[in-house]
User: Fold this.
Amino acid sequence: MAAQLGVSLHPARSVWIELWNGKHALGWDYHGTPVFRFGWAPAGLATRRQLRAMHMCPGGHEPYAVLAWRKGKRWAWLYRLDLAKPSRRATPAVLNALDKAMRARRTCGQCRREQTYCIPTADGRCNDCIDAANYSYAA
Assistant:
């Protein structure tokens, strides 16, 4: 993103960016959005994946900055931790509904046995039923 948008990620071109908390960090300014190299992002910022690992979500807030690596070809949005909110927990009713749905996906449409894998939706039969049908055609 940074290289594609014309931001040089060379350390010599970095500037001190003032953050939301009054502190400063080395990075680049791209049209008002701070850009940080991998390993340079200040504390208090996290990617979506890092937020998810902490059982949090952005909470409806826009990204604060960009984390860029591989000369700007790879990048990720950074969100403020102080604005992040806890992720919603699934209720027992939702978990029960998901269990029923997965059980239906593992049940063969022909022999009605529950398998340890998801049945292909194109055929609707388990591997045993498919093998038995193929064996009967070959014989």
DSSP finds four helices and eight strands in the chain. The longest strand covers residues 24-30. The chain has two domains: 2-86, 92-138.
